[in-house]
Amino acid sequence: MKLIPGLVKGLAVTGATVVRTVFPKRGLRTLIPAPSKGADTVQYPHVKEAPPTRARGVIALHEGNCTACMLCARECPDWCIYIEGHKEKAPPRRPGGKPRLVNKLDRFDIDYALCMFCGICVEVCPFEALFWSPEYEFSEPRIADLLHDKSRLSEWMETVPDFEDYETGSVAKKLKVPPT
Amino acid sequence: MTAVLEIAPFAILADLAYWQVTSIRAIAGLAAVLLVAGTLVYVHLFKLVSFMQSRLGPMEAGPYGSLQLLAETGKFLQKEDIIPRRADRFVFCTAPFVVLVSTFLLVVVLPAGPDAWFISNDLGIYLAMAVSSVSVIGILMAGWGSASKYSLIGGLRATGQLIAYELPLLLAVVGVVIQAETMNLQSIVLTQAEGEIFGWSGIGNPFILTQFLGFAIFMIALQAELTQTPFDMPVAESELVTGYMTEYSGLRFLLFFIGEFATAGVFSAIAAVLFLGGWYIPGLDAGSELFNVIGPLVLVGKVVLLSLLIFWFRFTFPRFREDQLQKLAWKYLIPLSLANIFVTAVLKVLW
Q: B-chain residues within 8 Å CB-CB of A35?
């Protein structure tokens, strides 16, 4: 018997949500049912909501910063990053110095059919070469097309939003992204 | 047992051959079950529930998603019909049909107008209650035949639950039967239409007024009989995948799905006949020919109202525990319904 007020309250909650959805408050026209105005959701393919700027949509690669150090590939829980590279002679930094050996990137693929969007690769990259982009519409009819190669991953760089300061007063942490 | 079984309701049907009457009746029965089930799925399962969650539900197939059910049916028909290797093939394959047959047999006793009925049987509600238990066998067959532990546990849970709640369902009906002095559903409707409340016959005497306790018990037991959510342990998806339906796919899963909502519709219709006056609405004479046309619509309207209650409960309350379920049936509902019968009988004799 003492359960009954709780049961009624539960019914009132769902009932009130129905009323709020079907008859949203809009003055005199409240009595006209308009569920498409009262619903909290949007009809996705017709209306698109902008994702938050720091949403984890897709991972972008800034190719110039990558040194093929393999940290991301090794930390990846799904082993969905494939990296190949070779060493190359580069001119010395200062005149008169020794020529340097740098790692050149040959292949950098992320298999989004395997990726679980944990972001460990982005966190672990010591050279600021991987970024989150809020883009999310990259589904493919064929599963093999979900393997994004170096150029495709670099294209996502254009969609990476500018870094915003964490809060006012904090030391601005600007990302060091030199032009490629 | 002198059950009168009249065959042909309308005068024009009396001239037709037996097979013609039978096929007309079969088509009408299919329409009565499937159209109502489709309406309930669209209005309640797709739309009402979406509104409860502040979303729109299906909107793409047809205007406001009204053809969504056709699309779903097409999808299910295309799917592969998988039978587990170790399943008992015959039992596995026939189980959904057994469940569906009990639903289709239920609709037979329902009157939808003074002349619009399938059979007029003095056993009426007794027949309906007996036939409705057949679905337990289908569910147990599905649970046993699937050769899966989830299905087996789901089937056993369903059986225990359906048997426990059949009792309050039946006992709640007894009060109505005592008051109406008949088990014929048509006569129950007429009794309510011609009844009067303390001499005032404005709205007849729908038994929900005098038998409100019976109505409440009937609706709770109905919720459990349909394995709708506060009582959905047999298909508890967080524990048993989908219970006895786990191994089913394609057409056979669709049959279970239709069976679930068709049974909801037919049982709501029985509740409407028993407690809300069936096809009768106040304002017209109960013998009026007009009721053959608007009677079915009135009945469907009452079905939609009653199943709104069922789905409202379904999408508001979380699931009971198995022991709470049995406690509710045996410790509260059955004693209450027995007391209801006792009081009804005493008042019937006194009046």
A: 51, 56
